[in-house]
Amino acid sequence: MHRILPAVVLLIAIPNGLPGQTPDSGAPRAMTLVDLLNLPSIGDPQLSPDGRRVLYVLWTADWKANRRIGHIWRAGMGGGAPVQMTTGERGESSPRWSPDGTQFAFVATRDPDTAQIYLIRDAGGEARRLTHHATSVSDIAWAPTGDAMYFLADEPKTKEERDRDKVKDDVFAFDENYRQRHLWR
Q1: How many Å apart are CA 32 and CA 127, to the nearest integer?
Q2: Which helix or strand (DSSP H or E) is residue 162 part of?
Q3: Read out DSSP for 32-67?
Q4: Strand, helix or coil at 87?
Q5: For residues 144 and 7, what is the distance between their CA atoms, to the nearest angstrom?
Q6: What are the phi and psi torsion angles at 82 (to 5°)?
Q7: What's the alpha-carbon Rg for the chain, to the nearest Å?
Q8: Would you state the pLDDT for residue 23?
Q9: pLDDT tens-digit profile of 30-83?
Q10: Residue 72: count of CB within 10 angstroms of its CB
């Protein structure tokens, strides 16, 4: 932590390079905070059951949406160019191979405002929605036999809570209406 703060101060204090350098001098310039935010990042790698492919999420900055958007990519271990598997407007996350490796599941927020599980074949194509849960799902996992998916999700809101939301009567004391998360199949 002590080393990060001076580095951030240095990046803020010298946004256009070192003292004495001019932007058109041809010398390399120091990275700015915007440069750091524009750096793509990779996360959540998932090795296929046969060990020959890997799925991962590539996160990039979307300045119009004011957030980072992740899409799922697949790369083969024998080389070749990576292939982008998803292109949703709001992004996707949590790719998980099926036990037989012919398809994978992922979490995305598409039609509703809740994150749901989608399936797509390894060969590509259109993803199909698997869950229709009332609340957003997370932490997905395949059953070892491949015949079911498990996920975590909050309890759905009651009719009274939905009615209060409609009239914007949603003020509550901290931890007063705590919602349990459950494991669903």
Answers
A1: 38
A2: helix 159-166
A3: PHHHHHHS-EEEEEEE-TTSSEEEEEEEEEETTTTE
A4: coil
A5: 47
A6: -65, 155
A7: 22
A8: 57
A9: 989 888 888 999 999 999 999 999 999 999 999 988 889 999 999 998 888 999
A10: 26
